[in-house]
Amino acid sequence: MTLELEIICVGNELLIGKTLNTNAHWIGKQATNLGANVKRLTVVQDIVDEIATIICETLERKPQLIITTGGLGPTFDDKTLEGIAKALNRKLEINPKALAMVKQKCAEYAQKRNMPDMVEMTPQRTKMAKIPEKTDPVQNPIGSAPGIKVKVKDTLIFALPGVPTEMEAIFTQTIEPLIKQLAGDNLFFEKSLFVDGMPESNLAPLIDKVMADVQGVYIKSHVYVPTRNVITKNRPHIEVHLTIRTQQKEKPMEKLACAIKQLSSLVDANGGTPSPSD
Amino acid sequence: MTLELEIICVGNELLIGKTLNTNAHWIGKQATNLGANVKRLTVVQDIVDEIATIICETLERKPQLIITTGGLGPTFDDKTLEGIAKALNRKLEINPKALAMVKQKCAEYAQKRNMPDMVEMTPQRTKMAKIPEKTDPVQNPIGSAPGIKVKVKDTLIFALPGVPTEMEAIFTQTIEPLIKQLAGDNLFFEKSLFVDGMPESNLAPLIDKVMADVQGVYIKSHVYVPTRNVITKNRPHIEVHLTIRTQQKEKPMEKLACAIKQLSSLVDANGGTPSPSD
């Protein structure tokens, strides 16, 4: 059974087209390569009720893992923990471990920048240690806002900061080993074949044929166009992306190679030009 | 009342970290600048039931507008129209207008590339004209797959292709005028102030003060870090993003300028360095 994961990103900036959501892209790539099946991504505004609602909705689908990004910082608009607390019907409370983590980061900052005032626990700094009751803070190796980890029935929720380096550091340190363990032997493998000189509608029946012949391989075609992707040829340039989720012992790379070989022959026989990637 | 919009992107490639979701970013930016309130973005896999489910869930929230991207093409994995049909409990049927659009694009392609076979309506090409009954096809000025438009109670659903140039062309031609009309005078205005030399937790109470003083202005801070963003200074570099949704007659730019001036003074008085953008 594959490990099902959902990603929830909190932040107006992701919805108004200010910030490109590289966090979801990064998590999607890492988690998939570690064997997780990323089922859904939702981006919501910095509104407590919106966050609470999406947490409840996602829990109802019972993924094994939920990762949220954003909204853990010291400013008024950082509302993810309040949203999670509301969803779980738990109080927000100052967690002693989380407070110790924030204090340590402030002390380091104070010393590094020679800003002695930074050791003072203002309401804004204390806010970062206010987490839902009965949840665990997760050490942030880079920034001052800790993440949190909370198990709800069979689902484990991680709330990570939105600052990419901080999110990545916590993911790598805490979540990566967990996904490896939960996903077990089921891994994800991929290969690409580029096709020129034929439209996608002519490629489609060839893909159907190869998918019927090489069991387990999923084949998806992507049309690239000159403006947003740097391809200058005056014709459709299609990337055919072949993937498989299986165990090493099922020889996934051999299956992908077989599918690419068969598809290349078919493309060639139908007037197209196949070029395998490396 | 603001025009509420939800975006749904369909495509495994967006969840496995293969393709960065620039479509959602682009639509979010355009729609926001035209006056829409982008409430939520959801990305789902190429699975009919997943698509049908997210369409039903989104309709329950009653946004005035839903825009989907991806899944309209000729290959087996293009399942958005099947998902919408299932959600609305309507049959998929060959729409004569849609079929004429596909035929015309194929004829153009056949002539341009000297590929006479392209005029033949294979099942894969006909598939692009199979849309839910009682819906309208929307002309795709660039590619062969038409979009669709369907009204469900008070919600208008547009399904657009995933190829960025095609999605952008249909948006600009068909959706932009509609958002302008529906959003009316309520527009979105933004300004940025950059802050150096102070941590976000010290900036937080200053933001609270300015937001209390300058009514209607929403202020959000974003911490940039050297690795993913090209900033080489060895200290936090914060972008303070000030936004307001209102009518021109409420003098939004004056309000933003006033907030920036007040915040700059406060930052300066608290040991930080403010630098307004342009």
Measure the end-to-end span of chain A. 31 Å
How many distinct beta strands of chain A?
A: 12
The portion of residues forming beta strands of chain A comes to 25-35%
Number of separate helices of chain A: 9
Secondary structure: helix percent of chain A: 40-55%
Q: Give, in order, the helices and strands of chain A.
A: EHHEHEHEHHEEEEHEHEEHE
Mean pLDDT of chain A: 93
Radius of gyration of chain A, in angstroms, nearest whole number: 23 Å
Give the low-confidence spans of chain A: 228-232
CATH topology of the largest domain in chain A: Molybdenum Cofactor Biosythetic Enzyme, Chain A
What's the story with the biggest beta sheet of chain A? 6 strands, mixed
**Quaternary status of these chains?**
homodimer
Number of domains of chain A: 2
CATH superfamily placement of the largest domain in chain A: MoaB/Mog-like domain
Largest interface: A-B, 79 and 78 residues
Q: Which shape of chain A, going by the Cα principal axes?
A: elongated
Top-tier CATH class of the largest domain in chain A: Alpha Beta
Structural class label of chain A? alpha/beta
Question: What order do the strands of the largest sheet of chain A run in, or round the barrel if closed?
Answer: 2-1-3-8-7-6
CATH architecture of the largest domain in chain A: 3-Layer(aba) Sandwich
